[in-house]
């Protein structure tokens, strides 16, 4: 690994506030660009994906869950979360000491990473924001399992608690110098920290929250597939920053990670589509989207440490194994019927994340690991067969931690805070109008839709209409 602390682009003097000696303007520009690409995956990417894949009456609620999570995570992150994930040890190997990272001195100083031989040539504020967008998208991905029935007030409490007690521990253990990092577990860009954790926590939280209305489970056709496809395009392209930003430099490894990301995703989408045609006789657009997502997820732990042919193999498995769990096992096993996972995050994130992590243990190359300054010499193909076992151990830890803490948080909200996890039956029937007093679409100025803000009905009228809407839907159900 080349020494990343000096290069031809470094200018200025140590005391020059505009161009300190350690600053590489190319790395700084790429890191901020990569962070912005990841932020766009959440806003508007997942916002419009969720809004498009749910029924019309849930479009606003689903989108607003994303917006709220993005804002709440940022506040938690800068006040105490970042240092829990990347600071000094509080519980050795497991989590850092919570605290704020808001001073000008800290924000303007050089970023420091204890987990890599690379010394980032950009400032701490850039690192904090880059890591924030990963934390935010994790919570938003988790929300995909809870759409169309979780009480919004419960969600407001859940987000900061889950980020504090679950996400930060996973991040510290793998990225902050924790015990999984010390054992050489490879998670290049969040296959475990982000996707296995969100897939596990989403599924567990869905169990505690409870299911949607029976009529919604039986008939939950997306109300706007084209809108969802726009979001999916943003998600795919944004993943260039998701994986390409993790070498913390505009380096050759960043380019390799971007190429491998797109290779695996393309192969996964094609495999999923072929399986849909073979078994269901039609190429499903929503199915292709699932294949795209599983490809992105599976390549994430491996992106910069495998060769292109390894990315192809990962794409083959990510397009097939989650397809089997979703379309065959998911429809036959009572285990999946018990839990209402709205968008199937168990399959697209947990299954795909574990698949990618396991294959990383096989196909990680010695050159790729060296380029990323990892402790491990590579995977099984590099003569390091025990890496496969460590990859499985890392996945099991993330799964176990999230099962326990997601359950504890849900029980705390329900029994200590005394906030119901699930909406009332009336709210479930009415949707956005009852919960937010707003509707996703208004096609006429005099349309009878309530709104709490701007030019609309008075609050009393909005309440009446919400009740009438619920009663009308209840009559239809009968």
UniProtKB/TrEMBL annotation:
Family assignment from sequence similarity: Belongs to the ammonia transporter channel (TC 1.A.11.2) family.
Compartments it resides in: Cell membrane; Membrane
InterPro entries given in the database record: Ammonium/urea_transptr, Ammonium_transpt, Ammonium_transpt_CS, NH4_transpt_AmtB-like_dom, RhesusRHD
Pfam families: Ammonium_transp
PANTHER family xrefs: AMMONIUM TRANSPORTER MEP2
Transmembrane segments annotated in the record for this chain: 29-51, 58-80, 128-148, 155-180, 192-210, 222-242, 254-273, 285-303, 309-329, 350-376, 388-413
Gene Ontology terms for molecular function: ammonium channel activity
Keywords tagged on the record: Ammonia transport, Membrane, Transmembrane, Transmembrane helix, Transport
Domain (Ammonium transporter AmtB-like): residue spans on this chain: 29-441
Membrane-topology annotation of the record: Multi-pass membrane protein
SUPFAM superfamilies: Ammonium transporter (SSF111352)
Protein name (Swiss-Prot/TrEMBL): Ammonium transporter
GO cellular component terms listed in the entry, alphabetical order: plasma membrane
């Amino acid at each position: 690994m080349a020494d990343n602390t000096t290069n031809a682009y470094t200018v200025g003097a140590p005391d020059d506030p505009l161009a300190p000696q350690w600053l590489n303007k190319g790395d700084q520009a790429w890191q901020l660009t990569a962070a912005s690409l990841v932020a766009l995956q959440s806003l508007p990417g997942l916002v419009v994906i969720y809004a498009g894949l749910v029924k019309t009456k849930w479009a606003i609620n689903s989108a607003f869950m994303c917006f709220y999570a993005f804002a709440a995570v940022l506040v938690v992150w800068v006040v105490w979360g970042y240092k829990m994930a990347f600071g000094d040890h509080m519980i050795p190997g497991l989590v850092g000491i919570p605290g704020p990272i808001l001073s000008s001195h800290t924000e303007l100083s050089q970023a420091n990473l204890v987990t890599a031989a690379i010394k980032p040539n950009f400032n701490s504020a850039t690192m904090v924001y880059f890591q924030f967008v990963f934390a935010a998208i994790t919570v938003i991905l988790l929300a995909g399992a809870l759409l169309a029935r979780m009480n919004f007030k419960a969600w407001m409490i859940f987000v900061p608690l889950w980020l504090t007690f679950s996400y930060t521990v996973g991040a510290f253990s793998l990225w902050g110098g924790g015990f999984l990092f010390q054992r050489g577990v490879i998670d290049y860009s969040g296959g475990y920290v982000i996707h296995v954790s969100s897939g596990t926590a989403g599924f567990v939280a869905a169990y505690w929250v409870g299911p949607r209305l029976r009529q919604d489970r039986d008939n939950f056709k997306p109300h706007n597939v084209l809108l969802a496809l726009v979001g999916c395009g943003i998600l795919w392209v944004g993943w260039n920053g998701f994986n390409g930003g993790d070498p913390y430099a505009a380096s050759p490894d960043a380019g390799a990670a971007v190429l491998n990301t797109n290779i695996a995703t393309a192969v996964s989408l094609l495999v999923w589509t072929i399986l849909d045609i073979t078994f269901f006789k039609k190429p499903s657009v929503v199915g292709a989207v699932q294949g795209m997502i599983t490809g992105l997820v599976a390549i994430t732990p491996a992106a910069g440490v495998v060769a292109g042919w390894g990315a192809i193999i990962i794409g083959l498995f990510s397009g097939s194994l989650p397809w089997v769990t979703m379309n065959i096992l998911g429809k036959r096993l009572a285990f999946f019927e018990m839990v209402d996972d709205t968008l199937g995050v168990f399959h697209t994130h947990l299954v795909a994340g574990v698949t990618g992590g396991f294959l990383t243990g096989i196909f990680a190359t010695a050159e790729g690991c060296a380029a990323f300054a990892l402790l491990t010499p590579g995977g099984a193909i590099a003569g390091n067969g025990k890496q496969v076992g460590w990859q499985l151990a890392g996945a099991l830890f993330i799964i176990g931690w999230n099962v326990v803490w997601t359950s504890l948080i849900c029980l705390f909200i329900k029994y200590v805070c005394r906030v119901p996890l699930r909406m009332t039956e009336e709210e479930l029937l009415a949707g956005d109008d009852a919960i937010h007093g707003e509707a996703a679409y208004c096609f006429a100025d005099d349309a009878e839709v309530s709104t709490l803000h701007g030019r609309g009905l008075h609050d009393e009228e909005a309440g009446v209409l919400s009740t009438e809407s619920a009663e009308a839907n209840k009559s239809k159900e009968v």
